[in-house]
Amino acid sequence: MKEPLRYRNGIPFFFDKSEQDFKKDIYERYDEMVVRQTALHLADEIWGNYPMQHVLDFGEEHCQNYRDGSILEVGSGVGRWIGSLAKRFPGAKCWGIDYSYQMLKRANEFWVEGKSIEVDLRSKGFPGPIKINGYQLRNLQFGLSKATDLPFENETQDLVLNSFLLDRLENPLEGLKEMFRILKPKGKLMLITPLNFNKYEHWLDFYPPGKLYEKLNEIGFEILDSREDMVIREPLDGRGNAVAWKCLGVLGSKN
Question: Cβ of 88: how many Cβ atoms within 10 Å?
């Protein structure tokens, strides 16, 4: 694994993210993004359940044999998916990689340092604030890097995960190739995406889903399972307004 360039509050930086990069990155905005993502992914009490449960359910179908494996989530955000797997498989070596320092700091506070976090969504019509208690997982680490430049050696990971990431990458194909590079032979890639691209050329390259399957095959992945009917409702406020994401789930194996 690459040596970190530096640390910031315990978070290793594997990419030299400049101050200008920080200013341009909307995911570094604490009140707008970190509070929102913390509530969405960690504070189930607010919603009465976990709004993104379909992500965990899709993973549950295919994450049965990783008790001593190496598991990486790319675009881990505040760490719900990789944290859940680290809890389930205490003998596994788990990493969460993200490009947002603020997201990683929150993930590390909650899942590794075991801090209690206060979530206040009164501005969205909820009573509050509420407090959520963190964990102290010894088999989980978080680090900052880009999806197209992961800090792992070739063929070192048993399972690579990502959700709501592919359509946000500047170069989705390079991101997929990088995930292929670090997977062991027969290692698995699991991705969930709404295919909600920001660039016209990405729509041309990856939509409809059959084009994404073709790209994965060209890289060297065998498609083991796919689901195109996964609808995830992301709640917005206390009145029940929500965004419905029509998601694609894919499980691939490195040939």
Answer: 15
